[in-house]
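Morning F.,

Quick status update on the modeling queue. The single chain you submitted on Monday has been processed. Sequence for confirmation:
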Amino acid sequence: MKNILKVLRAERDWSQAVLGEKLNVSRQTINALEKGRYDPSLPLAFKISRLFERAIEEIFEDDKGEENA
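Structure tokens below.
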């Protein structure tokens, strides 16, 4: 799953550790999310959406395209 977490985090000058603290997850989880190695749970996706005041669809994108629709 593609996402713009790294961009949103950089805009606020937050480290991965700071973002992790705000979301109650580890820095390693943030790193894995940013690199696309981990897809967030739905509750975590909602927390991220609320924190950045963006729709989930603005932050996360299915990297498989429309083939699964």
